[in-house]
Design a protein that fits this description.
signal, Outer membrane efflux proteins (OEP), lipoprotein, single chain, transmembrane beta strand, disordered N terminus, palmitate
Length: 465
């Protein structure tokens, strides 16, 4: 009965342990209005509503390139750091949440002190201890936990953003290497043809059928082709190293691109909607929004620090004057201490903390708006460029076809003596320039497709809806 009576007396104090979060001093969190037009630039083929972006696996239309992207997702060190940051944020959230709950310890305490009669007495206690548990009446701890939770979600969004950027960067590096390979192949073919032309021109010059100017022109074209080949070989080697760095390991030779950049579509077309609201699902925009939520929660925690804190401490267990009778019945006892403290003077520290948290919130608002503006600009740039790049590729292909036909006809005229060697060399130079430009334009068109996919958030945005 005594033990039951003691527990009943302790009931109000035990109930107080669970009294948390009665008041929340954090301001109401509102998402700022979009600081961009409500609609993305109108382009042909744009959907009226939101368009769920496909996975990168369905965008990439080459098995080797897909394997290279998988290697990058497995080995890239920056992505590994982003994922580890998520694990750290998860652990930090658990630490912050733990502050909202009591810390109970099992303890055996021995004390030797004078009793009420002035006689030295021994007191032994074995049981549970409650250490400095704060009753979160004003939501200080809850707001701290909310801030940590928002930080975790922001870190997770940052990891998704890093993954999307890595996919885009890997594909871009692989396609750039493919462009290097095709350009180098074309230059080497041109070099072989020009060396043959130089040999024939030298023979003709010896018998008086060609002038010294013709010979010098042929030599100039050979030297130009050699210089271009050396430059492209150096560029290819550098771009290969860049691809290896992005992937995180050396890319196997069998997965490297062939010289076929302009012969096929390596990436599927990317569709887009017209509403700017779709940009809110981008991982980087979500990250900025969660940073704003964390800053808003920190205001509540700073405001709560202005008010008294109620902290409980206590213990409950068996008490005895000797170890032999410590665990005998009838020796149960408990203690409970409540401490309420309020800062009267701190030289303006708490007020300054509130001001800092409010300014941090305002900074987070500006950063969120900047993230939305950046997302809009990137998506708009890629959208308006999409059609023009495709048209430019077609125009460049027509130019190459025309230059090839002109070169063929000029060579026929040279054979019958109605065209000069200089005229023939000039058409060959124009053809080589047009072919090199076609490779660059095709590469730019493919990179713009990937830029649009990334600007719309890719399949990472679809996972957020």
């Amino acid at each position: 009965m005594n033990r039951l009576h003691n527990l009943m007396r302790a009931t109000p104090l035990v109930a107080a342990l669970w009294l948390t979060g009665c008041v929340n001093l954090a301001p109401t969190l509102e998402r700022p209005a979009l600081p961009v037009p409500a609609q993305l630039p109108a382009v042909e083929g744009a959907a009226a509503g939101a368009v769920a972006q496909p996975t990168w696996q369905s965008v990439v239309q080459d098995a080797n390139l897909s394997q290279v992207v998988e290697l990058a997702l497995t080995n890239n060190r920056d992505l590994k750091v982003s994922l580890l940051n998520v694990q750290r944020a998860q652990a930090q959230l658990r630490l912050t949440d733990a502050d909202r709950w009591p810390t109970l310890s099992a303890a055996v305490i021995g004390q030797r002190a004078p009793n009420s009669e002035g006689v030295q007495a021994t007191t032994l206690q074995a049981g549970l201890q409650l250490s400095s548990y704060e009753i979160d009446l004003l939501g200080r701890l809850r707001n701290a936990s909310d801030a940590a939770s928002a930080s975790l979600m922001g870190t997770e969004a940052a990891a998704r953003s890093a993954r999307l950027a890595l996919v885009s960067q890997t594909i871009g590096a692989w396609l750039t290497l493919a462009a290097d390979e095709e350009q180098l192949t074309r230059v080497r073919q041109q070099l072989v043809a020009r060396e043959e032309t130089l040999r024939l021109t030298a023979l003709r010059e010896r018998v008086g059928a060609a002038s010294a100017l013709d010979l010098q022109s042929a030599q100039s074209l050979v030297a130009a082709a050699k210089a271009s080949a050396l430059q492209l070989e150096r560029q290819k080697a550098q771009d290969k190293l860049a691809l290896d760095l992005v992937v995180g390991k050396g890319v196997p030779a069998e997965l490297l691109p062939s010289a076929e950049l302009t012969s096929r579509d390596w990436l599927a077309p990317v569709r887009a909607g017209v509403s700017s609201d779709a940009l809110l699902s981008r991982p980087d925009v979500i990250q900025a929004e969660q940073q704003l939520a964390a800053a808003n929660a920190n205001i509540g925690a700073a405001r709560a620090a202005m008010f008294p804190r109620i902290v409980l401490s206590g213990s409950a267990g068996q008490v005895s004057s000797s170890l032999s009778t410590l665990f005998d019945g009838g020796h149960f006892a408990w203690t409970m201490t409540a401490n309420a403290a309020m800062t009267l003077f701190d030289a303006g520290r708490n007020q300054a903390n509130i001001k800092v948290s409010e300014v941090n919130r305002d900074i987070a608002v500006a950063q969120y708006e900047k993230a939305v503006q950046t997302a809009f600009r990137e998506a708009a740039d890629a959208l308006v460029s999409q059609g023009s790049w495709a048209q430019q590729v077609q125009a460049q292909q027509q130019l190459v076809a025309a230059e090839r036909e002109r070169t063929r006809l000029t060579r026929l005229r040279l054979q019958v003596g109605s065209a000069s060697l200089l005229e023939t060399l000039e058409t060959e130079r124009s053809l080589a320039s047009a072919e090199q430009a076609l490779v660059q334009v095709k590469l730019a068109e493919l990179l713009n497709r990937m830029a649009l996919y990334k600007a719309l958030g890719g399949d990472e945005a679809r996972q957020q809806r």
